[in-house]
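Request: Show me your protein:
***
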Amino acid sequence: MSKQKHKRPGGQKPSLPAPRPKRVFWIVGGAIALLAAAVIVIGVFRPPSTPSTPAPAASAPKVEEVGAERLVGRWLRPDGGYVLEIRRAQSDGRLEAAYLNPRPIHVARAEWHREGGGLRVFIELRDVNYPGSTYTLSFSPEQDRLVGAYFQAAQQQTFDVEFVRLK
C-alpha cells in the first residue's frame, strides 16, 4: 500500500496537522504536578540536620562557688526575734548550730549541702513545743540572707521565712 500525495490547488505542499491542545495540557500539567510533588517530598521528608555543637567558650567566666564558711554567724528571723547561730560549717555537711527563742531550743540535726551552685541549710528542732519542726533554707549571697520555709510540726503548717545576719 502506498500513500499518494495529494496536491492542493495552487501548488501548496500539504501542512502537518496541528498538535492537539489536550495533549499539551496534560504534558505540561503532569510536569508541574511532578515538580510540585518533588518540592513537597523534599521539604517534608528532608533528613533532620544534625545540630552543630558549639565550641566551649574558653573565656567564659566560672561561677565562683560560695563557701560554706559564709553560713557561720548569728542570724535573726525578723518576724519573731528567733536567732539561729551557726558556729561551724564542717566539710562533711554538718553544722554546729544553736536556736534561741529567746531561750535555747534543742537542735537535733543541722546540715548544709550544695544545690544548683548554691548552699542549702536544714535544721531540725526537737524540744518542748518543737516536736520535729524544721527549717529548709537557701543562702542568698547577694543579700546575705537565709530564705526558705519553716515547718511547724505541732500545728502541721509551713511558713515562708527569712533570716538576716546580725552584725
The chain has a mean pLDDT of 80. The CA atoms of residues 4 and 14 lie 12 Å apart.
